[in-house]
Amino acid sequence: MSAKSWAYISNYFVYSSMVVYTLAFFSHAYETAWSLRNPDVADKSEGNLLTKTLDFTKTEKIARIATSMMILGTALLFGGVVARGISAGRVPWSNMYEFSITGALAFCVTYLFTLRKYDLRWLGLPISILVLLVLGTAITVLYRPSAPLVPALKSTWLVIHVSAAIISGGVFFLANVISGMYLWLDSIEKRGGRNPWAKRLPDLETLDQLAYRLVAFVFPLWTFAVIAGAIWAEHAWGRYWGWDPKETWAFITWVAYAAYLHARVTVGWRGRKAAWLCLFAGSTFIFNYIYVNIWGTGKHTYSGL
Amino acid sequence: MSDIELGFVGSVRYLWRQLTSMRTALFLLLLTGLAAIPGSLIPQRTNGAIPVQDYFKANPGLAKFLDKIWMFDVYGSPWFSAIYILLFISLIGCVIPRVIEHSKSVIAPPPAAPSRLERMEHFRTFEGDFESAEKYLRSKRFRIRQEGDWISAEKGYIREFGNVLFHLSLILILIGVSLGSLFGMKGDSILNIGERFTNIPTNYDSITYGKLFSDRMLSPFVIKADNFVAKYNVVTNMPEDYTLFVSVANKPDAKPVKRIIKVNSPLNFGSTSVYLQANGYSPLVTVRNARGAIVFQGAVPLLPQDGNLSSTGAIKVPDTSPQIGFVASFFPTYEQVKGKPARSSYPEALDPRLFIATYVGDLQVDNGVPQSVYKLNREKMVQVGLKSLKVGETYKFNDGSLTFEGYVPWVNLNIVRDPGKQVALIGGILAILGLLASLFTRHRRVWIRRKGKTLEIAGLAKNAAPGLAKEIENIVKELA
Question: Are B365 and B318 in contact (CB under 8 A)?
Fold first, then answer.
């Protein structure tokens, strides 16, 4: 098969995964909404609905369907990323379209793996929306035809450095979603208790721990991504660190997460303060990705996004 | 007197304690991150002078103010240095006591078991064999202290070791960076294919030295550019591969060996590396004066203006009277669309063309003001003609002639000496190993006390790491 037909196959895979993620989104939404109106739960004789423990057993089936859709969507997206790589004859991460689909894949895989250990299914709804947003933007705005690499990118370090950065990004993004969730639930609780649907979400302590675990898990990988980038920069550009905008923001992200880990472990920050710091650190990563790639100058900007 | 001295020592000690407190370290860490931001939004001199000049032209008033607070040299500025130096002092102040404490704890036996285990976490009692406890814990690589009726076991020292290693390697990285900037140098040299480059300062087009660098540190290598091959994609015109073939001698009189330089694989001489950074075309021209004598002959590098290597520059002939200058444009694959300026439609030389605008008069090269070799100062010159030439063609004018003999590619060699990069690399590798050890290992203590026939067991997980409950359960199962 020609490179072009592989590129088409990749696009079909990405489109199909978007359809399946949409189904996952609706299933998750249905699960949440149906639980809310569950007549068994709104036991009026007991009074206030807000103080009741809710029973979600009746939505178990649709929730399982939703998770299966997430798995199927992720498998399709994986196919899309692999086909893109075959079409270009290299690893599929050399422009923003490719970063975005691979990053979305890393994000979903992290979610599904974490799901095996923690009851994270409540995250399915925001995650399916976010993935749809990322893939939608990627295929409409950022899409570029599959092309071979410019000489500066022809290096094994492309595989090592960029894959480490993308995986770190996916996990940081998940930690951000959880920290955002924490702050939202915290403000709901401060206003007098959770809504019925929010009751099936884990308690604040668990969310706080989970965000920390994800960051602590991926921080060494991010450190590795930065150092691998420095080694590659030394090979390609003659210096391992030059305060290029991308490097600067990678450094800022690293410092911000280092501060977050210290704040939690050594100074003992928990809860809101830690969640804000985690969100700040994650937003420096997203800023680096969007701002520096599109409006920034420097050595990390290659032709056409 | 002694009172004042005590006060001084006291306040120094107070300052030191403030500086090395964890809160200050955290503040400095965040401040370092924030301080790095402006340098990514405002053009920096270290990344090229031209964007800075453009910024000055666009906002002269603001630029002057920003320049006063080092905003165009953020990462070398006193305020940025102050922040990271304070951060590293704070880091050293945090780490050294921990190194001492950790070494002590490695040498000393584990602390005695608490007298009342029931107050500790994971406390339980069971009937089991106290005698085999020590053997079992030892087989699980715990460090053991047994006195009378209790055992105190500790495991996971590597966590603190990793932590200390990580912070010490950050200091190592800083040392590597400093070595590089003090004893390093970097420079650029444009070399026509067929020519030879000897590594001495005068052969560079631009060169910058570290503060403690001296010319004697330049390794005396010689590079001859034998051939340069560029491959382009015929559809997108994008470059796909650059290869430079060179003959290299470590000393001027040594026997040269053949080598290849590519974009991602530089040539190394110890801590000096030679990178292939840019390329373009040099037209070969011969200029004759009115009497027909050769007054200039050679390859003139022109600067590429676009991806298809449309290039411009100047040819200056000072050793004749009147002086002659040419504004030259070279198009490797010439294309002329009606109503538009001439351009190149492909980066390979498929249909090369040289455009020249000829000037005579005074080049003003001897008046002491430095001039760009790519620009002609036309203040005291008069234009006498324009001409488009194919290879082999000659343009004749009143004061002489120019022959377009051919062309050669040129390459820009970027030569960098950084004696600190290996140190920084080792620092980086150790930092990752330290991080892995400190984030993925657990430090915990387990105590067992014999009370008649029953045993009491309890434990303590540092940093509330999970998994100790399971471990204690296994110990109980084994001993029961």
Answer: yes
Tell me the one-letter amino acid at B479: L
pLDDT tens digit sequence for B398-455: 999 999 999 999 999 999 999 999 999 999 999 999 999 998 888 999 999 988 888 8
Quick check: is A303 in a domain?
yes
B152 contacts B426 by C-beta, under 8 angstroms: no
Instruction: Please report whether residue A44 resides in a domain.
Output: no
Q: Are A140 and A169 within one domain?
A: no
**Residue A36 to chain B, least CA–CA distance (Å):** 34
Q: Do B240 and A150 touch (CB under 8 A)?
A: yes
The reply to whether B264 touches chain A by the CB within 8 Å rule is: yes
Spell out, as residue ranges, where chain B has pLDDT lower than 70. Answer: 1-6
**CB distance B33–A239 less than 8 Å?**
no
User: Does some domain include residue A207?
Assistant: yes
Q: Supply angle C-alpha B186, A239, A97, rounded to 5.
A: 140
Position of tokens 């001495």? B200
Same domain, A160 and A179: yes
Residue in chain A lying closest to B439 (CA): A216
Neighbour-count burial of A233, counting CB atoms closer than 10 A to its CB (0-12 exposed, 13-18 middle, 19+ buried):
buried
Question: What is the phi/psi pair of residue B299, to 5°?
Answer: -95, 130
Which of B24, B27, B30 to mutate: most A Cβ within 10 Å?
B30
* Residue in A154, A155, A259 closest to B29 by CB: A259
pLDDT value at position A40?
A: 47
Q: B-chain residues within 8 Å CB-CB of A249?
A: 40
Q: Is residue A93 domain-shared with residue A203, that is, in the same domain?
A: no
> Would an 8 Å CB–CB cutoff place B167 in contact with chain A?
no
Cα–Cα dist B176/B165, whole Å: 16
What φ, ψ does residue B445 adopt, rounded to 5°?
Answer: -120, 145
Interface confidence (ipTM) of the complex: 0.85
Question: Nearest 5°: phi and psi at B385?
Answer: 175, 160
A59 domain-assigned: yes
Identity of the residue numbered B45 = R
Range(s) of the domain holding residue B62? 2-99
> Cβ of B24 under 8 Å from any chain A Cβ?
no
A160 in the same domain as A139: no
Provide the domain count of chain A. 2
Q: What is the pTM of this model?
A: 0.84
Q: Are residues A111 and A203 in the same domain?
A: no
Instruction: Yes or no: say if B150 and B449 are a contact pair by the CB < 8 Å rule.
Output: yes
Looking at the fold, whether A58 and A105 belong to one and the same domain comes out as yes
| Chain A residue with Cα closest to B187 | A238
pLDDT along chain A (305 residues), means of 10: 83 92 90 61 46 60 90 94 88 84 91 85 87 88 76 81 90 93 91 73 87 93 95 89 91 96 84 93 92 73 50
Distance from C-alpha of A272 to C-alpha of A81, rounded to nearest angstrom = 37
- Compute the residue count for chain A: 305
| Residues facing A181 on adjacent strands | none
Residue B344 falls inside a structural domain: yes
B396 occurs within a structural domain: yes
Flag if B266 and A235 touch (Cβ within 8 Å).
yes
Are residues A59 and A190 both part of a single domain? no
Same domain, A10 and A127: yes
Q: Cβ of A242 and B239 within 8 Å?
A: no
Domain C-terminal end among B410, B432, B458: B410
Place of tokens 């920003």: B66
Sign of the torsion angle spanned by Cα atoms A254, A255, A258, A263: negative
Closest-approach residue (CA) in chain B for A263: B26
Which residues in B lie closer than 8 A to residue A242 (C-beta atoms)? 46-47
CB contact under 8 A, A235 and B264: yes
Range of the domain at A305: 152-305
Could you give the number of structural domains in chain B? 2
Q: Which residues of A touch B240 (CB under 8 A)?
A: 148-151
Comparing alpha-carbon positions, the chain A residue that sits nearest to B35 is: A252
Q: Is B262 on the interface with A (CB under 8 A)?
A: yes
